[in-house]
Structures are given as structure tokens and as C-alpha cells.
Specification:
Helices cover about 65% and strands about 0% of the residues. By secondary structure, the chain is an all-alpha fold. A two-stranded antiparallel ribbon has the order 1-2. A hairpin with a 6-residue loop joins β1 and β2.
Length: about 350
């Protein structure tokens, strides 16, 4: 399902820039929630089929997941810091880049606030929680807010790679995944219902219809990860059946088409239909593509594309790079090229280490 992950990553890129000849794909919100479903599927797969026997180690699983996330993130974070330093020097301090909010509010921040923001920038964990707090400039402390837009300064401006908040949600799932993904569906289904009911109660009873409650609250986003677990169970059932490749390819092409042409589809409730159908078709797509090496390589680019595209966007704007076909096209092309470098120079080398750690523990 590498090409699908690639298109979802591009959906986020286009959502932060402009359409690609009118194509916006599924947009950032649906793309992120689809990634959560994929994550639920993959974590269930590897915990049931890879981290077993002598590899059945919580420490090994978590450390290997973090090894997958941190190297690319830290490289992009370092480049973001270096770019901000260069920008600060070249502008004689008039533009501090990602340091701007830290500089502006440094004297208004308490030590706990500073430590928290530095910690979450370095280690990703709790970046999603940033959206639920604001800074009291009188006391220097952070305080809980129902709507971060109403309480300046908006704390997400202190995140140097702002889109990485979704990885904070991913990490939260990784921490609990070993305790839930091996459970039977009679446990998973009630959890899905509970997550959905919580979303409904918050939306209709407490009138929390604004970001971050509709998009970033882990207990309500958990439904997507749990749907991925159900998807894995469907996959295991399908393994006992003989399904012709032509049918699998039709499903695959259908999902790719729905993803690419999403914004052109005149279908009521298409967001619900796309996401509810996504976990159902995922097993078929995995069955078809699991041994496709080129597809796997394309999928590997999705994470570096997601993590690096804002930095690339900022640099392109600063350099006044001509945007032939619009910023969406330019940003997509340059980000893909940069992500290939990141994947080949960083991710692939770390991947060898990750795989050796699993083999060595058998």
C-alpha cells in the first residue's frame, strides 16, 4: 500500500500549499486519519507476526518504533534550526524564523513552560497536547483552554515542525498498542463504540465542535487506530480465501481513484464514506501489494515527505523560487526529491539497524 501512503502524504502537502492542477486529493484531515488506520493495521500485524517469541519485548517494540521516527525528524529539526540561524544573521535579527515566538515571549515564560516546549520539540511526545494549552503571559504558566485560537499566543507557534503533532498522537498509540492489538474483537469493538460515543458527546452535548476537539483529541482519534486493528482481523480471514488478482487490483484502483479525485466527487457524506470504507478495503490492498518492492519504496517516502514539507515550503518562499503550475506542484516536486535524499541517506541506514535488533533477539 505504498502508493496509497504516498498519495495521502501528498494530500497533506497540497493542503498546506495549493491544489495540483485542481486536484487536492483527500485533504490533510482525512489523510492524517487514514494514516491512523494504516498505523493500527501495521502495528497489529507486526506485534502479532514479528514481535513474538524471543522478540516479544515491549522495550524492543517501542525503541524500534522510535528509531523509525526520530532520525528523520531530528535531521529536519536540525535543518530547521540551522535555517533559522542563517535567517536571523542575514536579516540582522529582524527575522528569527522558528525562534520568533520563543524570542518574543521568553521573558513571559516560566521554567516549566520552557522545559515542556523544548522537550516536546525534541522528542515529539505530547506535541498534540500543545493544542489544548495556552500561555499565561502574566504568570508564565501554561493553562488548559477549550479553544487555543481564543487565547494568544497560540502555543503551536512554538513548534518548530508544527505538522509533527500527529506523530505525538502516533506515539501515544504505540505506547498502548502492545496491550490492545492482541485482544479479540469482542474487546476492540466496544472500545471503538466508546471512542465514537465520546466524540458524539463532546460534539453535541458539550458543543466542542472546534479544532482541536474534532481532530487532535487522542481518545476520539483512537477509533481510527482501532479500525486498523479490525482491518487486520479481516486480512487474516481473507488469507484463507483464494481471491483473484484482478479483483484485488480493481479494489486498489478504486481506492487510488477515490483518493485522487476526492474533491471532484459530488457525493453527500463522502468523508464518512471514505473513512468508513478505508479500513474495509485495506486488507485487500495489503494482500495485493505486500510483495511489491517498488511500491514499498514509494511508501517509505511518505514519512519524510510529511515531516519535511513545511521546511521546504518556507525555504522556497524565502528564495522566491518560481512556482510553475502553482506552489502545490513546486512544493510536491522539491519535497519528493528532498525526501528521497532523506530516505536513502538516513532512513535506510537506520532501518538496517532496526532489523538487526529484531534478528539478534531471536
Amino acid at each position: 500500500m505504498g502508493l496509497l501512503r504516498f498519495l495521502l502524504a501528498l494530500s497533506v502537502v497540497l493542503g498546506h500549499s495549493s491544489s495540483l492542477f485542481g486536484f487536492e486529493f483527500v485533504g490533510g484531515v482525512i489523510a492524517v486519519q487514514s494514516f491512523y488506520v494504516i498505523s493500527g493495521f501495521y502495528m497489529t500485524l507486526i506485534l502479532n507476526e514479528k514481535y513474538v517469541g524471543k522478540n516479544d519485548s515491549y522495550k524492543l517494540f517501542i525503541s524500534n518504533r522510535l528509531l523509525r521516527l526520530y532520525p528523520i525528524y531530528w535531521v529536519v529539526l536540525l535543518l530547521t534550526v540551522l535555517y533559522s540561524v542563517v535567517l536571523s544573521v542575514s536579516s540582522n535579527g529582524n527575522d528569527l524564523g522558528s525562534f520568533s515566538y520563543f524570542y518574543e515571549y521568553w521573558d513571559s515564560m516560566g521554567i516549566v513552560s520552557i522545559i515542556f516546549l523544548i522537550f516536546t520539540n525534541l522528542f515529539l511526545f505530547l506535541q498534540d497536547a500543545v493544542m489544548f494549552f495556552s500561555l499565561n503571559t502574566d504568570t508564565g504558566n501554561l493553562f488548559f483552554t477549550l479553544n487555543f485560537h481564543r487565547n494568544p499566543p497560540e502555543l503551536y507557534n512554538f513548534l518548530m515542525i508544527p505538522q509533527a503533532w500527529t506523530i505525538g498522537v502516533e506515539i501515544a498509540f504505540y505506547l498502548i498498542a502492545p496491550f490492545i492489538v492482541r485482544r479479540k474483537l469482542k474487546v476492540i469493538i466496544p472500545l471503538i463504540i466508546a471512542s465514537l460515543l465520546l466524540r458524539i458527546v463532546l460534539y453535541y452535548h458539550f458543543n466542542l465542535k472546534n479544532d482541536p476537539w474534532t481532530y487532535r483529541f487522542f481518545p476520539t482519534e483512537l477509533v481510527f487506530f482501532l479500525s486498523g486493528i479490525v482491518s487486520y482481523h479481516i486480512y487474516k480471514k481473507l488469507q484463507t480465501m483464494v481471491i483473484k488478482d484482478v479483483y484485488l487490483k480493481l479494489v486498489w484502483l478504486g481506492v487510488l481513484g477515490a483518493t485522487i479525485f476526492y474533491n471532484f466527487l459530488p457525493i453527500p457524506g463522502k468523508k464518512f464514506l471514505y473513512l468508513s470504507g478505508f479500513f474495509l478495503v485495506l486488507p485487500f490492498i495489503f494482500m495485493l501489494t505486500k510483495n511489491w518492492k517498488r511500491d514499498a519504496y514509494i511508501g517509505e517516502l511518505s514519512y519524510p515527505i510529511y515531516i519535511s514539507h513545511i521546511l521546504v515550503f518556507v525555504v522556497l518562499k524565502a528564495l522566491n523560487i518560481p512556482t510553475l503550475g502553482g506552489m502545490g506542484l513546486t512544493l510536491a516536486v522539491v519535497t519528493i526529491a528532498f525526501s528521497i535524499l532523506l530516505n536513502n541517506l538516513v532512513a535506510k541506514r537506520i532501518e538496517k539497524i532496526r532489523q538487526k535488533r529484531v534478528v539478534a533477539s531471536r
